[in-house]
Amino acid sequence: MSRRFTENELEAYLDEALSPDEMAEIEKALRNQPQLARQLAAINGRRDAGMHTVGEIWRRHRVSCPTREQLGSFLLGALSTEQLDYVTFHVQTIGCRFCRANLEDLDRQQQEAADTTTSRRRKYLQSSAGYLRRKK
């Protein structure tokens, strides 16, 4: 018996807003169920025709996602308690893949910047070591 997917699940699939396991499950079903592929094509056609619901617009434009600036402040611990609670809920409880990817990117950039700064300081010190004199 093949699993039936809801319209919301298929919408989320098109928006790439499902977990990797759920995405894989739908992709596998698409290979074996021509009617599911037709249903997905109909949803896509409705979207292309400009027939949108508030929920679709909300999801597509990621209205509930914090800005990249807010995510950066989250990493730095510079958010108010309310903002911190919201971002934590959004990323950890809801599990927004887009915001998680943004956080990982920001964290990586922060680490690279720290490594670059340390390396630059070491080079400055090494290049000027022979020019510095000790006071006697």
Mean pLDDT: 86
Query: What's the multimeric state?
Result: single chain
Rounded to the nearest angstrom, the distance between the terminal CA atoms is: 88 Å
Q: Based on DSSP secondary structure assignment, what is the total number of beta strands?
A: 0
Helix content: over 70%
> What's the main sheet like?
none
Contiguous helical run count: 7
What proportion of the residues form beta strands (DSSP E)? under 5%
Kindly provide the radius of gyration, computed on alpha-carbon positions and rounded to a whole number of angstroms. Answer: 24 Å
Low-confidence stretches: none
SSE class: mainly alpha
Dominant shape = elongated
Could you spell the SSE succession in H and E letters? HHHHHHH
List keywords for this structure.
136 residues, mainly alpha, 0% strand, elongated
Short description, anyone?
This protein is an all-alpha fold.
List the topology elements.
Blueprint: H1 7-14, H2 20-32, H3 34-48, H4 54-60, H5 68-76, H6 81-93, H7 97-128
Structure description:
The protein is mostly helical. The protein is 71% helix and 0% strand. The protein is built from 7 helices and no strands. The protein has helices at residues 7-14, 20-32, 34-48, 54-60, 68-76, 81-93, 97-128. α2 crosses α3 (34-48). The longest helix has 32 residues, at 97-128. It is elongated, with a radius of gyration of 24 Å. 7% of the residues are buried. The model has no long low-confidence stretch (mean pLDDT 86).
